[in-house]
Prior knowledge:
The structure holds two protein chains of two kinds.
Chain A: E1 5-10, E2 20-27, E3 30-38, H1 45-48, H2 57-62, H3 69-84, H4 90-116, H5 126-132, H6 134-155, E4 164-165, E5 168-169, H7 175-178, H8 181-199, E6 212-217, E7 228-231, E8 236-237, H9 242-245, E9 246-250, E10 257-261, E11 267-269, H10 271-278, H11 284-292, H12 305-326, E12 342-350, E13 353-361, E14 367-373, H13 375-393, H14 399-411, H15 417-420, E15 425-430
Parallel strand pairs in A: 2-15, 6-11
Antiparallel strand pairs in A: 1-2, 1-15, 2-3, 4-5, 6-7, 7-8, 9-10, 12-13, 13-14
Helix pairs in contact in A: 3-4, 4-6, 4-12, 5-6, 6-8, 8-12, 11-12, 13-14
Chain B: E1 5-11, H1 17-24, H2 26-35, E2 36-41, E3 53-59, H3 65-76, E4 78-84, H4 86-90, H5 102-107, E5 133-135, H6 142-154, H7 165-172, H8 177-181, H9 197-200, H10 217-226, H11 231-238, H12 246-254
Parallel strand pairs in B: 1-2, 1-3, 3-4, 4-5
Helix pairs in contact in B: 11-12
Amino acid sequence: MAGETRTIRTEALARVEGEGALHLKLKDGRAEEVRLAIYEAPRFFEGLLRGRRFDEAPDITARICGICPVAYQTSAMLAMEDAAGVEVPPALRDLRRLLYCGEWLQSHALHVVLLHAPDFFDLDDGFALAERHGDVVRRGLDIKRVGNAIMEVVGGRAVHPVNPRVGGFYRVPTRAELAPLRPQVEEARKAALATLAWTATLPIPELERHVAFLAVHDPDGYAIDRGTLHASTGAVFTAGEWDDHVVERQVPHSTALHATLDGASPYLTGPLARWALNGHQLPGWLQDAAAEAGLARPCRNPFASIQVRAAEMAWAADEALRLIDAYETPAAPVVDAQPRDAVGYGVSEAPRGALHHGYAVDGEGLITRARIVPPTSQNQAAIEADIRATAEANVALDDAALSWRCEQAIRNHDPCISCSAHFLNLTVERG
Amino acid sequence: MARRKSLAVWKFASCDGCQLAVLDGVDELLALAGAVDIAYFLEASKAKVEGPYDLSLVEGSITTEHDARRIREVRGASERVVTIGACATAGGIQGLRNDADADDFARAVYPRPEELAYLPSSTAIGQHVLVDFEVRGCPVNPRQVREVVGAYLAGRHPQISAASVCTDCKRRGLPCVMVAHGTPCLGPVTQAGCGALCPACDRGCYGCYGPMEAPRTAALAAWWRELGVSEADIARAFRTFNADAPAFREEARRHGG
């Protein structure tokens, strides 16, 4: 209707990690204003890290996010090892990768089954989904439990593992300690493949988004625990060159900073980016299973990210099996990393995308400067663009239905607001 | 038939890790969802039921004026309030700002901190409202959360030990890392409940469950000094995830922290 203005506000977004809100102003069917407001109380990690010892960074930054603590620990350890000029030997690197596979399994399973799947059935939550599709929810929770089990055996605890440290681990497990994981992980791989096949039955809304992709790339395998950055724009850069490519700016409505990639905004990091840039590295049987489930590569539909996460769960379980089978107890749990006056950078693939850490350390080993760029703040502009596209395509819906559809567009990205608040409520204004 | 009890889960400044620990008992939670109304749990559900609630679990610390008002509303709407985790029980890692300049911290992250709304301190929920029970840990142990939720729903008092991590080590038969390896450990002054996770990894406890009842922090600090730990490192050890817990805060100050 000519001249009609609608304002839609969602005060508190459900099924996201952390606190955010959405404000949407529609005029004549166009989205005039889209603001993803992140009101998560800021905790100032980059500030409180100053004056802490370099080897405290993994434990402290883990507390940025209870869903992906290993991502924070890994990027921090890589950065501090870079500063100390040491590299951990392959055996310890593999053990880190196994721990990280556990985190991917539990984080993806949580999102796929409890947070994202209910959207495709118009249900409020995983509890309601469990009443209708108990087998699907139980299967997902079994995968999550296996992820947790890996984290407990290798990391000492499922949330905020205590065992990883700069240079390696406090204690490395024996082969016998890893052995009981094997049959569970085998089951998790089957469950993940069944979940991937099940995603083919979901009514996935059509949406095609053209944004740049950014992912960590490792020539030796699907990147998680290390690598260099590759972008769909052709840019290739190391963790140390991050600041030359990614620029963060503060926006008034959010405690998350917005990022641009070589001036490009929006860009996307996370499952769709990894699938586009690294998917060719996945084993043939998994690429076939994904194709059978109807997942194209690249995939530009954020609603279909649930399929990529399901495929990545199958991969993470498969990779964990490989690592368990190849495991020999490392000769030493840790390599010596001595503090020195230096800067260090680290990047790894958190379940939600590339996570960058950069530190300056003084001669005493104390942190003088810290910079942490989480995936959700990189994705915020892309999420806002998705909301705009979703709102304009669904302008005929009433406010409640439109608001709910926009919330779904947000949850596609599994935003972690605790991480980015440096994130979310929904308001729609129509005019 | 008796009315079903209602449970709400609230988040303040935190990492969501303790809510995740609650979700990790999810089989029990699904069973629980049959026994209680999960009335408000934003991380897990869209469904919201207006209070009052029989039991509120609160994660996170108070760091903004808005949250200082919100926690009073939560208290007003709840029969029982149980805080979960180091943020809610002691201000959390973000409590490090309490002995520093919060504006200076903010400037380290944001180009225009003046656009942000925050308090100079991060404080425990118990400093704002009456709390019925505190579940410690960074993060909490899911078993302890289940014990406390189960106890209040059954109308009994929770059975949670306030003794030190040393009792967990003894129970597991772990050799003392401090005696056997000279590894500095906060276990003797830290509340049990984790199951001695760090000593089981050949690592000294880093105090994430906060101070035990009547901790002898000065005696432990003297022992650390004998092990060659610097004053600054002793101060930092007490000033981490439970920096604003009084016993740890006072000990840190005695060492210049």
